[in-house]
Design brief:
phosphoprotein, 20 helices, about 30% helix, NADPH-cytochrome p450 Reductase, Chain A, domain 3, 3 domains, about 700 residues, Rossmann fold
């Protein structure tokens, strides 16, 4: 349908790490080709829009952060709409469509979007389009792409003057129900299955008139002699398909090289989340044996000379750099090795077509190129499809060009999931795989996200160890795979392990045989308080803790704190405490054998452990996993949670442990209450709502 006058709609985004903004920008770019004009704003810019008087349709793209909170940019908006004095028809005039982003690895999936969606409904707003919930665990694009495709039909229906025929409403219904089917497919996906086997497009919406997408010449077909696809090679049908690829994102950054004179800013100046503290690492201990599958380290930080404060259960963030060798390699491939120490000036390109183009807040006005690649950009980030699309234009070889087009196309969605997303491929891997791809520096600044500080659970008590902060982590390992032929360590854990090597192996410290030099190593940290994952306010309330592997970390702080309280307040009544701990091997990775001390002095009432890889000669096999041990104490779990109104804490891996523990608790509640499973699930939901079943989990 052609219309001389483009119809306006309000497009709001709420983002934490840039994902929601990027999707909103994609909607903004496509809008013009469909006869619409998107008035796009960050949801925090409340002076630039007014929902109370908004007459046009509203489209909202919103992510989720933390354990289910709206992003920081949405906090003011959420607070405003949660005003209990607002009447139920406050937004009765409003038509909106909402796309929520989340990760089903976490308990409160897409909760940021759900909070806003639910509240707008309570205030009388009406959907003109079904809510979409995209899952980063299996690939946001599986929901985002069909949701955007269907948006244009829904918007046309939302403008009564643009109805071409009465039957259009049935088309919109078909789009919505088709999208719902697609969403159902995604949510029912077994997360361990291969995403590439899912063909959502066959069930979802396909738009034949997305003008912002480009049809690629089918004559550029890769060789069909190979039967298996790879990062650099495709096979039919992808290799023989015409491709729908995203619109080329407009460039908006300009980089000017300057001289080598000056000083870089301190990395902590890049942090906007809170006050940073530079603190020395005073102790490092390897908790696992050398032959353990994973290497766990405990680090102790000296915070005595700071105002940094924390409670057991809190988390904090470590400001970390990219790997030095990877930065040097990236400079070499880009032909910028000699420019590494040169200062660069980063500006917004004049006349750019990018909506709301602004200088990235995480890039200093003036710093060296090496500083930007080391401290500012997440060079390990998995490239988004928009980045792949931009890289096509920087590639000279026809075959490489075609493969990059396939990987960012709708037709190549399963290849993207398999060879880029699931293989943890980063820019450096792409540049090795596609040697004629030579992106400009401005393209990297435009498409690589901010290098995020890494979060860790506190594993100590300030009451027990004043002026000290301890934390435990596994050194993350990414083994080599066909799409990424080199193994890597985690960005932060690998850096920390290298940093504290002199403390772990003092005899190898040739700089200072007494080890004095190693104690001066410092790291920058900032607080990330947890408002809920704390000890019960009433010490007489019993609680249970489940923490296998490094999931035990916050519970060491809990127990240290409880021990100190027991010593200082002998007249207080203290509730019983349970700890369920598990690891692979008792003699290799039993991280805290001193747990027995807490048991002996009465701080810990019950300690239950299991070892998943140790062989047993017993007639009845011992339970392997913590969820199995929890089931053995069903009556005690039910008593603590239901009769004594106690607390239940879970910390560790989400998919392989926390879900199993919650399933075990549901079964226990069902059995002990003689209720069906649905009723038990409702009880668990109520416990979560009451903040008595608490999780600190990661994927």
């Amino acid at each position: 349908m052609c219309c001389d006058l483009k119809r306006r709609f309000l497009l709001l985004y709420a983002t934490q790490k840039g994902q929601a903004k990027a999707i909103a920008e994609e909607i903004w770019q496509q809008a013009g080709a469909h006869g619409f004009e998107a008035d796009m704003h960050c949801i925090s810019e409340m002076d630039k829009y007014n929902l109370e008087t908004e007459k046009d349709p509203v489209v909202i793209v919103i992510s989720t952060t933390g354990t289910g909170d709206p992003p920081d940019t949405a906090c003011k908006f959420v607070k405003k709409i949660k005003d209990t004095t607002l009447p139920p028809d406050h937004f009765a005039h409003l038509q909106y469509g909402l796309l929520g982003l989340g990760d089903s690895e976490y308990t409160f999936f897409c909760n940021g979007g759900k909070i806003v969606d639910r509240r707008l409904q309570e205030l009388g707003a009406q959907h003109f389009y079904n809510t979409g919930l995209a899952d980063d665990c299996v690939g946001l694009e599986l929901v985002v792409d069909p949701w955007i495709d269907g948006l244009w039909l829904a918007l046309k229906e939302a403008f009564p003057l643009q109805k071409e025929k009465e039957g259009m409403s049935s088309v919109v219904d078909a789009v919505s129900s088709s999208l719902s089917a697609g969403l159902h497919v995604v949510h029912e996906l077994n997360l361990s299955s291969e995403v590439q086997n899912l063909k959502l497009e066959d069930k979802g919406v396909r738009s034949s008139d997305v003008l912002s997408q480009k049809l690629v010449d089918v004559n550029l077909v890769a060789s069909t002699t190979d039967t298996k696809p790879s990062l650099v090679r495709s096979v039919p049908p992808v290799s023989q398909s015409a491709l729908n690829i995203p619109a080329l994102p407009p460039e908006y950054i300009e980089v000017q090289f300057q001289d080598t004179h000056g000083e870089n800013p301190h990395p902590s100046s890049l942090i906007s989340e809170g006050t940073t503290f530079e603190v020395p690492v005073t102790k490092a201990v390897q908790l696992t044996r050398e032959d353990a599958i994973k290497t766990a380290l405990l680090l102790e930080l000296d915070i005595e000379d700071t105002v940094f404060d924390y409670q057991p259960g809190d988390a904090f963030c470590v400001v970390c750099p990219n790997n030095v060798d990877e930065v040097e390699e990236l400079l070499r491939i880009l032909g910028l090795s000699e420019k590494g120490e040169h200062f660069v000036c980063v500006k917004v390109k004049q006349g750019t077509k990018k909506k709301g183009a602004a200088h990235p807040q995480h890039i200093p006005e003036r710093s060296t190129l090496k500083f930007i690649l080391t401290w500012c950009l997440e060079i390990r980030a998995i490239p988004k499809k928009a980045f792949l699309r931009a890289l096509v234009e920087c590639t000279s070889d026809v075959g490489e060009k075609r493969r990059l087009q396939e990987l960012c196309s709708r037709q190549g969605a399963s290849d993207y999931a398999c060879f880029i997303r699931e293989s943890n491929v980063c820019l450096l891997d792409l540049l090795h795989a596609f040697p004629t791809c030579k992106p400009s520096l401005n393209l990297l600044i435009e498409h690589l996200p901010k290098l995020q500080a890494r979060s860790y659970s506190v594993s100590s008590s300030n009451l027990y160890q004043p002026g000290k902060l301890c934390f435990v982590f596994n050194i993350v390992e990414f083994p080599a795979c066909p799409a990424r032929p080199v193994s890597r360590k985690g960005v932060c854990t690998g850096w920390l392990a290298e940093l504290v090597a002199p403390l772990l192996h003092p005899s190898k410290n040739t700089l200072d045989t007494k080890g004095g030099n190693s104690a001066t190593e410092k790291i920058s940290i900032f607080a990330r308080p947890n408002n809920t994952f704390h000890l019960p306010a009433d010490p007489s309330v019993p609680f249970m803790m489940v923490g296998p592997g490094t999931g035990i970390s916050p519970f060491i702080g809990f127990l240290q704190h409880r021990q100190k309280l027991r010593e200082e307040h002998t007249d207080w009544e203290f509730g019983e405490t349970w700890l369920f701990f598990g690891c692979r091997h008792q003699d290799r990775d039993y991280l805290f054998k001193q747990l027995r001390c807490f048991l002996e002095n009465g701080t810990l009432t019950h300690l239950k452990v299991c070892f998943s890889r140790d062989s047993s000669t017993a007639e009845v096999a011992a339970p392997k996993y913590v969820q199995d041990v929890v089931r053995l104490y069903a009556k005690e779990v039910a008593r603590v949670l239901l009769k004594e109104r106690g607390y239940f804490y879970v910390c560790g891996d989400k998919k392989h442990m926390a879900d199993g523990v919650s399933d075990a608790v549901v079964d226990i509640l069902s059995m002990e209450m003689e209720a069906d499973k649905l009723e038990a699930m409702k009880i668990l939901a109520m416990l979560r709502e009451a903040k008595r079943y608490l999780q600190d989990v990661w994927s």
